[in-house]
Amino acid sequence: MNDVPKPYHHGDLRRAMLDTAMDMLAEDNGWQFTLRELARRAGVSHTASYKHFPDKAALLAELALIGFDKLRVALLAARPPAPSSLRDQFLEMSRAYVRFGSANPNLYRLMFSADARAAASERLKEHGAAALAVLVDLIEEGQRAGWLRKREVYEQVGAGWAQLHGVTLLTIDGLLGPDVIRSEHAAEAALQILLEGLEAVRELGASPARRPG
Amino acid sequence: MNDVPKPYHHGDLRRAMLDTAMDMLAEDNGWQFTLRELARRAGVSHTASYKHFPDKAALLAELALIGFDKLRVALLAARPPAPSSLRDQFLEMSRAYVRFGSANPNLYRLMFSADARAAASERLKEHGAAALAVLVDLIEEGQRAGWLRKREVYEQVGAGWAQLHGVTLLTIDGLLGPDVIRSEHAAEAALQILLEGLEAVRELGASPARRPG
DNA sequence: CCTCGAAGTTACCGTTGTCAACATATGTTT
DNA sequence: AAACATATGTTGACAACGGTAACTTCGAGG
Fold first, then answer.
1. What is the pLDDT along chain A (213 residues), one digit of tens a residue?
2. Which residues numbered 94-113 in A keep a CB inside 8 Å of some CB on B?
3. Other residues' Cβ atoms within 10 Å of the Cβ of residue A1
4. How far apart are CA B149 and CA B142, in angstroms?
5. B50 close contact with A: CB closer than 8 A
6. What's chain A's Rg over C-alpha atoms?
7. Is B141 part of any domain?
8. Among A103, A136, A168, B24, which residue's beta carbon has the most beta carbons within 10 A?
9. Does some domain include residue B212?
């Protein structure tokens, strides 16, 4: 009946477990933490979680949903204030996207994992689409303003998302660093090159942009 | 002396286990198959694998290495015969990359997983770089021929790799289909848009293309 | 006050990855 | 040819895991 069930014994154990699990995601490798360790940290017995989640996959899926919500918030917060060009807004949002993934590598991987999808495919797509909507809006606005090439919007969204996703994951894996890709600013350059494929008119001067982080 | 040790009891059990494991990667979800099931299929006892791999992670890492080798072969095989433009070669290679990931989703994910990296980080980077070299060559040649913009080569390589990686993973996850990205040819469009960011001169197409300057 | 179901616990099950001890085959040395 | 050392494979065990079933506790509504 209640969408937000009141605490009985513990005091919203469900939330506590999600929070603790999110912490453990930040520590361990992958999402291979155990439900028993999670229960240990929450101070309950090792089967308490089954009163709130059918199984471990469901718990993981819930974390992934929260992850997409956090990503959406991070993207929205990254849009700079009014008097900035759409281009700057796009770049800031892109950097926020990559930063989110880099700061929460295990969470970001989990969000796109087969494990999470198996347990909540439909809801995951919804929350994912909600986060993506920020990018969609920006691209639609960019086309209207004549900044971006006229083209099927969702083709550009797909291209942009793929680039952000790729840059984020390669960065997480340390593959865009000077170790493999012999460039110091490979991530930033990739965003620039993406933009050059999206924009209606190219800027003069093909020199690589020098920007921190 | 021998890189390929002769069979004693079984007959190159190491190879047999790798092959069987590769098959199981194609079936199960992720790489959560069990060593015991693997041994069962290979017809040996459940601890036989420990004579050939220190632990499961090492076995997985070996699979990932093989995966990068296979990817390299697939990319090389995709370059069309002589009288084709560099652009076509690039597109064919890109499609082959995405096709490889789509055809072997679990293997592709494993190749970039934290699990595999934890067990063989250095060798993974080497084999990965070997596969990537196909892309590097093509881009260097493209710049020399004036087809691609003059720019730090590895910045373009990074941008290209990120796009291929992103498109591949989103395709695997079914997120580039008309379900989320409302376009039928999102993957192909993403490759086109990438090219438009890399090329020196834009082709005339469905949109008002303008030459720089 | 008393019942009822939600929240949490205890006991248990089958399975897993891994280790130690043992058995067997191979090819090298004497 | 006999003996040995070593690589290969097996048996048996262990703790830890995810999950189920039966039990206990506790707060809320009549």
1. 333 444 456 778 999 999 999 999 999 889 999 999 999 999 999 999 999 999 999 999 999 999 999 999 999 999 888 789 999 999 999 999 999 999 999 999 999 999 999 998 899 999 999 999 999 999 999 999 999 999 999 999 999 999 999 999 999 999 998 889 988 899 999 999 999 999 998 765 444 444 443
2. 105-106, 109, 112-113
3. 3
4. 8
5. no
6. 20
7. yes
8. A168
9. no
Instruction: For chain B, give the number of residues.
Output: 213
Residues A15 and A95 in one domain: no
Establish if A26 touches chain B: CB-CB under 8 angstroms: no
Residues in A touching B166 (Cβ below 8 Å): 161-167, 169
Asked if A57 is an interface residue toward chain B (Cβ–Cβ < 8 A), one would say no
pLDDT (0 to 100) of residue B204: 54
> Which residues span the domain enclosing B80?
56-198
**Same domain for B137 and B180?**
yes
CATH number reported for the structural domain that contains residue A175 in this entry: 1.10.357.10
Partner residues linked to B148 by β-bridges: B199
Handedness of CA B197, B199, B202, B206 (dihedral sign): negative
Question: Which tokens in the block code for residue B92?
Answer: 């064919």
Task: Identify from B193, B194, B211 which residue to disrupt to test chain A contact, counting A C-beta atoms within 10 A and taking the largest count.
Answer: B193
Q: Are residues A4 and A25 in the same domain?
A: yes
- pLDDT tens digits, residue range B63-114? 999 999 999 999 999 988 878 999 999 999 999 999 999 999 999 999 999 9
**Cα B60-B62-B66 angle, rounded to 5 deg:** 115
Question: For helices B56-78 and B114-144, what crossing angle results, to 10°?
Answer: 20
Task: Provide CB contacts within 8 A for B153, sequence distance 6+.
Answer: B136, B139, B140, B143
Q: How many domains does chain B have?
A: 2
Contact between chains at A152 and B194 (C-beta distance less than 8 A): no
Q: Considering only CB atoms, which chain B residues are within 8 Å of A187?
A: 158
Whole-model pTM: value is: 0.91
Q: Do the chains contact at B159 and A154, CB–CB below 8 Å?
A: no
Residue found by looking up tokens 């229960």 in the block: A39
